Task: structure prediction
Amino acid sequence: MFSLTRRLVVCRDAIDRFLWLVKWPVGIGALLVLPAAVKTFERYYVIRNQLNWHNLIYFAIGAGFFAAVRVAFLVRRGAAETLEHEMTHTLFAMATLHSVHDMKINEGGGGSMSFSGKGNWMIALAPYFFPLAAFTMMFFSTLVGRIAGFMPDWVYIGLGVAIGYNLCSFAEQLHPRQTDFKAAGYLFTICFLPAANCLSFGTVFAFVERGGKGVVFFYRLIAYYTKQDWVAVMNWF
Result:
């Protein structure tokens, strides 16, 4: 048992060192990917007549419904959003082999979680680029589609509600006083988060528009425009 625990600690520390080594290559890569992401969204606008608007309309209904409820009841960030925030920290801590010791949700707002080891920038920034509710709904939607043989319209409404929830949550959490940004480094956070969010929310949009094939198409466009930009930079030099 001790040997297994020791091996996990060694692996955990190795993952943390690796993420520390690739931190700035990832940050610079995110800066390079951001223009490609913008061009990809522009491309979707160009081919808007070819998009699967049936799915997108139901998706928009779900997002609009959540926004209307949010405004009508003036719902502020509460325990559910705090719980999701800390759960996302926890998910990435466990994914990088950090033992989670505790998670607290305060009644008056805010929360915290603790884990073994020094941690890494992915744990710190996870709640700000990983829309847990939307990705969970995507996984659930895939299961429903496999079982039913088709994707019911209510699934897209659910995805719209989930993405609306995540967008509101992100908007409230993104402010310069966040201690997580300090832990990851403010400059790195500024470099990384815009592109990371474009990829995360773009993935959800692509999935809604055409399922798994849509996600593949989305990332092919990202790769295509990134390659174009990289060639242009090399030619400039």
Q: What stands out?
A: The chain has a mean pLDDT of 89. Residues 7 and 59 are 45 Å apart (CA to CA). The chain has one domain: 2-236. Residues 186-236 form the longest helix (51 residues).
